[in-house]
UniProtKB/TrEMBL annotation:
Signal peptide coordinates: none
Active site residues according to the UniProt entry: H321
GO MF annotations, alphabetized: FMN binding; oxidoreductase activity, acting on CH-OH group of donors
The protein's name in its UniProt record: Alpha-hydroxy-acid oxidizing protein
Residues where FMN binds: 121-123, 150, 170, 198, 297, 319, 351-355, 374-375
Cofactor: FMN
One Pfam family here: FMN_dh
Domain FMN hydroxy acid dehydrogenase: 42-425
The organism of origin for this protein: Ancylobacter pratisalsi
Positions annotated to bind glyoxylate: Y68, Y172, R207, H321, R324
Family assignment from sequence similarity: Belongs to the FMN-dependent alpha-hydroxy acid dehydrogenase family.
Lineage of producing organism: Bacteria, Pseudomonadati, Pseudomonadota, Alphaproteobacteria, Hyphomicrobiales
Highest taxon of the lineage: Bacteria
Length: 427
């Protein structure tokens, strides 16, 4: 039995969910009966699904920031394809299986988690709400799910490890041995146990939507930027000014072993180095340096899954970067079955397009051991801060738990290929 979460949720017909403290240690692995009273605070009770947070985030955030979070590359084909891929599969429920002892508890790399999902790394999360990166990490660790700190975060990774108890770090590395060595040493010294190498960013993507909204990195001071801030006074005071007053101008803190440039500046070019030189030999180098778990993120080809395994990865994240890199790249869900087949003992994870508990179950049925979900949690942070993220986590756990019952399974590891089939209907 797990020493942490056990996947319990208590949700009645109103869609209410339990408050998201991690389930108590040594709790029985059964669901509890729906409770009469709704434990969800009033300020959160109108958020019934992950999609509800996006509407609130769009209102709360300056247009440029929301556009950066929500947007994708070029035509958004890959972004939209991620959702369409889930609609190409139907679930195949089994009935009369006695699901009264079901649990969402999931194991990954020997750890027990409340549910088979974590929070994906997302750039500039620190602008979603005050101390956004800490809010995401804290909500995740309180719920006993993993969260991945992004290299393009604005809070020193050491603080996120200490205050948010984050243990996964996602690096953007140049193909330069000395910089790789220094970064790996920094991440290790901070106490992280899982190093995620991002493999799908050899160059910056073409995100025309950012140009159209006036978003750039670094943010260029302009009348448009000022107006955008002024027309969102709550965000301006509670996030931007609160950050300036207590932490100063945010910097790219975690791109390298040393502090990067400020995010608000004229004419600063980020020193991202020769990322286009990054190659499999660098993964082998990281493997030699890094004693913890090593994960490669951005795999879409079975041949690359094999190379990741041969170069020492413990796991891979099948991902097209939320549609934010190569537009036209295949949806990870469609790549998943053939990748899972060649992955051997590596953990196979997936991100991209997951918005519902049923999506999580489809990914598991098609070969994923675990999934990561990104934008909805960032939107939850923008809408309601850490409490919003906790509520979003609880909603997704409740959906998984309910859909497990409807699918006829009691344990996450029992979700398998027989529970899914390709839909005959184009949707
Ligand atoms: C950062 O990873 C981004 O996709 O913007």
């Amino acid at each position: 039995m797990s020493d942490k979460g056990d996947g319990r949720t208590a949700n009645g017909s109103t869609g209410a969910v339990t408050p998201v403290a991690a389930p108590p240690a040594a709790a029985p692995a059964t669901i509890v009966a729906p409770r009469a009273e709704d434990a969800t605070p009033r300020s959160l009770s109108r958020f019934l699904s992950l999609a509800d947070f996006e509407t609130a985030a769009r209102r709360a955030l300056p247009r440029q920031i929301y556009g950066y979070y929500a947007g994708a590359a070029e035509t958004s084909q890959s972004f939209q394809g991620n959702f369409a891929a889930f609609r190409q599969y139907d679930l195949v429920p089994r009935v009369l299986t006695d699901v009264s002892s079901r649990s969402t508890r999931a194991k990954l790399f020997g750890m027990d988690y409340w549910a088979p999902f974590g929070i994906a790394p997302m750039g500039l999360s620190g602008l979603a709400t005050f101390d956004g990166e800490i809010a995401l990490a804290r909500a995740a660790s309180a719920a006993n799910i993993p969260s991945i700190v992004s290299a393009t975060s604005l809070t020193p990774l050491e603080r996120i490890a200490q205050e948010g108890r984050a243990r996964w770090f996602q690096a953007y590395l140049p193909g330069e041995d000395a910089r790789i060595e220094a970064m790996v040493a920094r991440v290790q010294a901070a106490g992280y146990d899982t190093f995620v190498l991002t493999a799908d960013v050899p160059v910056a993507a073409n995100r025309e939507n950012n140009v159209r909204t006036g978003f750039s990195i670094p943010l260029q001071p302009s009348l448009r930027l000022a107006w955008d801030g002024l027309s969102h006074p709550r965000w301006l005071c509670r996030t931007w000014f609160a950050t300036l007053l207590s932490r100063g101008v945010p910097h790219f803190e975690n791109m390298d072993a040393f502090r990067g440039p400020p995010i608000l500046a004229r004419n600063v070019v980020r020193a991202i180095g020769a990322r286009d030189q990054l190659a499999w030999r660098h993964l082998a180098l990281i493997r030699r340096l890094w004693p913890g778990r090593l994960v490669v993120k951005g795999i879409l080809s079975p041949a690359d899954a094999v190379l990741a395994r041969e170069n020492g990865a413990d796991g891979i994240i099948v991902s097209n970067h939320g549609g934010r890199q190569l537009d036209g790249a295949r949806p990870p869900l469609l790549a998943l079955p053939e990748i899972a087949e060649v992955s051997g003992s590596m953990a196979v994870m997936l991100d991209g397009g997951i918005r519902r508990g049923s999506d999580v179950l489809k990914a598991l049925a098609l070969g994923a051991d675990f999934v990561f979900v990104g934008r909805p949690f960032l939107f939850a942070a923008a809408a309601r801060g850490e409490a919003g993220v906790s509520h979003a986590i609880a909603l997704l756990v409740a959906e998984i738990e309910r859909n497990m019952a409807l699918l006829g399974v009691s344990r996450i590891e029992d979700v398998g290929a027989a529970h899914v089939e390709r839909s005959p209907f184009p949707r």
